[in-house]
Amino acid sequence: MADRGIDGGVVVVTGASSGIGREIARLIGPRARRLVLVARRAGRLAELEEELKKRNGKLEVDVLLADLSRRDEVTRLIEEIRQKVGDVDVLVNNAGVGDMGLFERASEEKLLSMLDLNMTSLMLLSRAFLPGMIARRKGGILNVSSGFGLAVLPGFAAYAATKHFVTALTEALRSEVRGTGVTISQICPGPVATEFEENIGNFTDQHAPGFVEISAVACATAAVSGYDRGCAIVYPGLVYKLVMLVSLWTPRVIVRMVISVAGTFVRKKQLGTS
Ligand SMILES: NC(=O)c1ccc[n+]([C@@H]2O[C@H](COP(=O)([O-])OP(=O)(O)OC[C@H]3O[C@@H](n4cnc5c(N)ncnc54)[C@H](OP(=O)(O)O)[C@@H]3O)[C@@H](O)[C@H]2O)c1
After folding, report:
1. Is 38 within a domain?
2. Dist. CA 127–CA 263, nearest whole Å
3. Quick check: is 164 in a domain?
4. Contact 138, 5 (CB under 8 A)
5. Structure pTM?
6. What distances in angstroms separate CA 1 from CA 32, 35, 208, 234, one per listed residue?
7. Which structural domain range is residue 65 located in?
8. Are 90 and 12 in contact (CB under 8 A)?
9. How close is the Cα of 83 to the center of ligand 1, in Å?
10. Which value, to the nearest 10 degrees, does the dihedral of the CA atoms of residues 19, 21, 27, 30 take?
11. Is 48 helix (H, G, I), strand (E, B) or coil?
């Protein structure tokens, strides 16, 4: 059986200051030897560090601040982890942001920052720590992608593209490391109640229906449990899982017709013509 590296291991969680990442850290804290918490908000991470150490007196916690939308900071973070922490057993690439709106109206700066955070940082961190995992024949990478890693929705063109990158990279890596003892897993959540929605700039009065949305705790639990079992992709939440399975089996031509209607809605809403 593969040694997935969480128990007694060194685990890095990006985006640990809120939402899914914070809950993943809370789940892994009692099991790991050392936990590296990465994000920009120092206060949030310090509070989490204190909480985690109270629950597991033996746990070592490192709070490393980095703006992962900046390549120089990603490079600095990788060096800091190598020097301060050493080998990484498990990398949880969770940090990410979304951006909602018509693509032609999106801020170029915001788009580039989102691409660098959601894709480049995840790729560089994975590239930095995967060789060690392969050499030690243990551990792995848990990526937090999205349902948008497999589907698309108008109003989320660039965000969905970043998550397609994550899903494709994860799937391909998984096949490349087969037989090395390394686990590559991803969770592709639907709506999760976190700060994510506040930050995407939702200009519609539409929100995910309550019966599809899940809590950050439920999402993190599904993510860690999926990683523990070596799952390729996890769709957390029963209703959402059914929606995903139906949409993945629906011919693309039909999906295209449905999302075109949604596209017209988004355009009218944002341009205020509805
Ligand atoms: N919530 C959903 O409905 C949903 C659905 C599908 C997928 N996801 C994915 O789940 C992941 C986590 O999101 P969440 O829902 O938990 O949202 P969240 O509560 O807003 O958490 C986002 C995390 O990413 C960190 N982050 C944002 N920008 C960063 C930057 N430039 N550098 C470093 N860290 C940064 C934030 O920390 P700081 O602000 O402190 O830096 C925070 O810890 C994301 O990859 C998102 O795409 C979310």
Report:
1. yes
2. 36
3. yes
4. yes
5. 0.96
6. 19, 23, 39, 20
7. 10-248
8. yes
9. 26
10. -120
11. helix
Looking at residues 81-102, what average pLDDT do you find? 97
Could you tell me the distance, in angstroms and rounded to a whole number, from the CA of residue 117 to the centre of ligand 1? 10
260 assigned to some structural domain: no
**70 vs 114: CA distance, rounded Å:** 10
Ligand 1 atom at shortest distance from the alpha carbon of 189: 6
At 191, the pLDDT band (50, 70, 90 cuts) reads very high
Whether 174 has a pLDDT exceeding 90, the answer reads yes
Residue 107 tokens read as 């801020």
Q: Is 18 helix (H, G, I), strand (E, B) or coil?
A: coil
What is the C-alpha to C-alpha distance for residues 41 and 43, in angstroms, rounded to an integer?
6
| Predicted local confidence at residue 206, as pLDDT | 73
Look up residue 9 and give its amino acid.
G
Q: Say if ligand 1 is within 6 A of residue 19 CB.
A: yes
The residues that are catalytic are 159
Residue 54 lies in a domain: yes
Query: Residue-wise over 157-173: b if at least 16 C-beta within 10 A, else e?
Result: bbbbbbbbbbbebbbeb
CATH code assigned at 104: 3.40.50.720
- The residue to mutate among 12, 13, 17, having the most atoms of ligand 1 within 8 angstroms of its beta carbon, is 17
Is any ligand 1 atom within 6 A of the Cβ of residue 94? yes
236 lines ligand 1 (CB under 6 A): no
What is the number of structural domains in the chain? 1
